[in-house]
Amino acid sequence: MNTFDVLSDFFGVLIPSDGSMPSASEIITAADLDNIFAMTHKYAEPIENVCEFISKELTSVSQEGAVAIGDGDRIEMLRAIESTMPHDFSMLVEVTYLLYYSKPKVHELIKWDTDELAEKNQLRPFDSAILETISRREPFWRQA
User: Most-buried pick from 76, 77, 123, 125 (CB within 10 A)?
Assistant: First the structure.
């Protein structure tokens, strides 16, 4: 069983559908996971550790594998991963959210304009007048 097959149903537990938004399981593909692994090695080991844990747990929970367990069992497995492997769990959550929110369909549904040069995405210039009062004060460490 490959990494995506192990994780696909767990993506939907981390980001479930709410009616107007698709679940992560519906929108994240195996190619997405492969692409993020190709871009950075940051996630490879933690995700492999999570998959190993899930695979071992699946054999003890069900003879038929991931398809035979429900979301309640998946939630319990994720809680076990979070408590025993917090860094790996954090990386799983991070990669799930990165992949989910990188999808144009999600951008469209949440009305997220990803054009960095768009007028509404520009920051106002910093107003240095804000610092005038502070710059006139004596440094506090010299008084000691």
Answer: 77
Q: Is 15 exposed, middle or buried (0-12, 13-18, 19+ CB in 10 A)?
A: buried
Give the rounded distance of the alpha carbon of 8 from its chain centre: 13
Question: Model confidence over 46-99: pLDDT tens digits?
Answer: 999 999 999 888 887 766 655 568 889 999 999 999 999 999 999 999 999 999
Q: Where are the alpha helices (DSSP H) in 2-127?
A: 3-14, 24-27, 30-39, 44-61, 71-84, 86-100, 104-109
Distance from C-alpha of 77 to C-alpha of 50, rounded to nearest angstrom: 10
Q: How far is CA 136 from the centre of its chain?
A: 44
- 77: which DSSP letter? H
Residue 87, both tokens: 């860094």
d(CA 41, CA 84): 22
Domain ranges of the chain: 3-113
| Other CB atoms within 10 Å distance of the CB of residue 131 | 10
pLDDT digits (tens, 9 = 90+) for 13-54: 999 999 899 999 999 999 999 999 999 999 999 999 999 999
